[in-house]
Amino acid sequence: MARPREFDMDTAVDGAMQIFWRLGYAATNLPDLLRAMGLTRGSFYKAFGDKHSAYLAALDRYDRTCISAAVALLTDQSKGSGTQRLLRLFEGTEQEDKAARRGCLVCNAMVEHGPGDAKVTARTAAMSARLEGAIFDALKDVPGLANDGEHSKRRKAAIITRLYLGAQAMSKAGAAEADWRGLLGELLGCEI
């Protein structure tokens, strides 16, 4: 009979997510990873097998927590107009990351792994697509875009998604805060 796990999987994966987010995949060594996850070497190998599997689990956790929270904000009409929700996304993330300077785990994974890791690429592409779909939903609630067709809104959603991901990378590099109200207003052709 197998022994039951002596640790909480969500807590362990959250620890992995935090250290990979802060240090990146390559810079995270096994002792730091074990410490962050609160696991012994044996428990780690039994549960995950290797560092790469723990990284994929951390990306999945990021998707379930951070990306899902962003999607919920962008698609929840009770949180204001589409422009207000977009503004909250950009400003909120900038404030959260100011001290940590860790950017977005999706962006970090894209930059660090590029097309060289098919599993990471598939996960980051799926998360980016979810975010872009939620931005498209928010754009449906922008009064100034009422006469724009679906194609135009989809193009704007693609632009805003790339702007958002780029802003995350710039935040990690310590870029000064942006005037998101002005930038988004100019991009969308309306006052926010």
Element layout with pairings:
Layout: H1 9-23, H2 30-37, H3 41-47, H4 51-75, H5 82-97, H6 105-113, H7 118-139, H8 150-172, H9 180-188
Query: Structural class of the secondary structure composition?
Result: mainly alpha
Shape: elongated
Number of domains: 1
Pattern of helices and strands: HHHHHHHHH
Oligomer: single chain
Nearest-angstrom radius of gyration? 19 Å
Total number of beta strands: 0
CATH level 1 class label: Mainly Alpha
Low-confidence stretches: none
Helix content: 55-70%
Mean pLDDT: 91
Q: First CA to last CA: what distance? A: 61 Å
CATH fold-level assignment: Tetracycline Repressor, domain 2
Tell me the CATH architecture.
Orthogonal Bundle
* SS strand fraction: under 5%
Q: Main beta sheet: strand number and arrangement?
A: none
Number of helices: 9
CATH superfamily: Tetracycline Repressor, domain 2
